[in-house]
Design brief:
Radius of gyration: 17 Å
Mean pLDDT: 92
Number of strands: 7
Low-confidence stretches: none
Strand content: 5-15%
Number of helices: 7
CATH superfamily: NAD(P)-binding Rossmann-like Domain
CATH architecture: 3-Layer(aba) Sandwich
Number of domains: 1
Helix content: 25-40%
Strand order of the largest sheet: 3-2-1-4-5-6-7
CATH class: Alpha Beta
Distance between the termini: 6 Å
Largest sheet: 7 strands, parallel
Structural class: alpha/beta
Amino acid sequence: MMSKKLDYLKDKNILITGASKGIGRSLAINLSKHKANVILLARNEDLLDSLYDEIKEKYNTNPMIIGCDLSQFEEDKAQEIANVVSKNYKCLDALINNASILKKMSSINEYDLMSWKKVLNVNLTSAFLLSKYLMPLMMDSKLPRIIFTSSGVANKGKAYWGAYSVTKAGIKNLSEILNDELNSLTKFKVFNFNPKETRTEMRALAYPAENPSSVKAPDELINYYLWMLSERSTSSSKTHINFGDEI
């Protein structure tokens, strides 16, 4: 496991989607502790404002807020985000495509099209567009990284998980395509990380009878992200990482 006393993230610029709560919020705080400049992207600007203030007060880094509803995400918005990041930072060092929604648990024959489209846009299409438009900003980084948040239902479809399962399978394939396309750029790494059971609002929606205290907190994931963002991961052939794996 990685040491908690690290300085290699100092002044690194890292964009996190779904940054206002859950895993995204935990990442924003923990990466700021290591002096990274976090770019906070989420829909709820009130939560983002509060998180921004906390980071500025405690860690004296250079964060930025991008309010954005990924369910309505289009190509022009991706370009706008790339322009804003380029204007405010010398380069982008990492993109963490973390935003995800479950929306509903339903059989396919009862799954409505509006929910289907919304889940695909938030979980998959936005990750594709952000990766496409932000990759050029990462070419000057010493350790460019794209990290996708995966799930156990990415590998095998499961009844009632509907569009969520489809998007996670799509994310898995997208990460593999990017890895293959970027193979000649030895410093560029693309990871697919499955945090497994983690205490989030989405988890509570999927498993309402579960005792939240029986599930790990998002902060327990940080060592995996620190490894993926480090030089140590550059020589590793592992691109699909699961919580519990040796790193």
